[in-house]
Write a structure and sequence with these properties.
Helix content is 34%, strand content 21%. A hairpin with a 3-residue loop joins strand 8 and strand 9. Helix 1 crosses helix 2 and helix 6 crosses helix 7. The two termini are 14 Å apart. Bound molecules: zinc ion. Zinc ion (ZN) binds next to loops.
């Protein structure tokens, strides 16, 4: 049984893990050399080396990145870590590590982790959502990532918020468009919405605490957030009809989402008027592996147990 190394290349941290089946055998975390591509390659190679020394064995290597590798050019695209854009990250790492390396978007890694041995284990169709600093998504079908010819499958964060009403004033997104789901459902979007209505700048955890204490404005901000998430996920259910939607990222720590959002999304999911079938079978669940889902999913980019380990 080969060991699997997963590396999650984040904007501030590089996380590494070794898993032996589902068991974590080693882990490390180093700062990302921001802005320096050569140093980033070096840091990843050093992390792989250190993990292999800790476990005294060779392993497969999967990498999650905040972006994706363009299938037409082999270069990184859509990364919010700008120093990676346009770089041949995969071939550079393969040369350094002297083995094939698999690279995928971090939201896809999250989805494959939760679909493999997480909250959606055994489910056929899974939509994995990251609601944190940004909003990303990944789709797995029978445990395999559906990435698409453009490698953008699941990127619902840059669709417009569906069924908008008067409280959903569109805001400019960093992608250049107006009213993207990310501008409402990301942590910064949640804080900005509270500030716009209540006039107070709070971080997401503070807003949730205030609502728990009975603060009416914070409660209203949370309700707007829940209504928006319900509509945004209803449009996913209409297209993909997943068995499970798993939430990860900082905003996924808000417990009440798991009761309130499914209570709201039914009225937006397609049903002809008068239909008696009313119970939706899609489940909304929180990530079982929490913050380690991304790095575990990177390791699971090599799912085939029969594959030979390579050192
Ligand atoms: Zn956008």
């Amino acid at each position: 049984m080969p060991l699997r190394i997963g590396i999650d290349l984040g904007g501030t941290k590089i996380e590494g893990i070794v898993i032996d089946g589902s068991r974590e055998a080693a882990r490390l975390r180093v700062d990302t050399p921001r802005g320096d591509y050569g140093a980033t390659l070096g840091a990843i190679a050093a992390a792989v080396d250190a993990l292999e020394r800790q476990t005294a064995t060779g392993a497969t290597v999967g990498i999650g990145i905040p972006g994706t590798i363009s299938p037409s050019t082999g270069l990184v695209k859509n990364a919010n870590s700008a120093w990676l854009i346009g770089r041949p990250l995969q071939t550079d790492l393969e040369r350094r590590l002297e083995r094939p390396v698999r690279v995928a978007n971090d939201a896809n890694c999250f989805a494959i982790s939760e679909a493999t041995d997480g909250a959606a284990e055994g489910a056929d169709v899974v939509f994995g959502v990251i609601v944190g600093t940004g909003v990303g998504g990944g789709i797995t079908v029978k445990g395999r990532i559906i990435s698409g010819p453009n490698r953008i499958a699941g990127e619902w964060g840059h669709n417009p918020l569906p069924w908008p009403d008067s409280e959903d004033e569109p805001r400019l997104c960093y992608c250049g468009k107006q009213g993207c789901i990310e501008t409402f459902l990301s942590g910064p979007g949640f804080s900005a919405d509270h500030e716009a209505v209540a006039g107070v700048r709070l971080d997401p955890a503070e807003i949730v605490e205030a609502a728990d204490r009975g603060d009416a404005a914070a409660e209203q901000t949370l309700r707007r957030y829940e209504r928006r998430m319900a509509r945004a996920l209803a449009s996913i259910i209409n297209i993909l009809d997943p068995d499970v939607i798993v939430l990860g990222g900082g905003m996924s720590n808000i417990d009440r989402l798991y009761t309130n959002v499914p209570r709201l999304w039914g009225r937006f999911v397609f049903a002809a008027e008068g239909d008696v079938e009313s119970r939706l079978l899609t489940r909304l669940d929180s990530a079982r592996h929490g913050d380690t889902s991304g790095v575990r999913g990177a390791a699971w980019l090599w799912p085939d147990a029969a594959m030979e380990p390579q050192a």
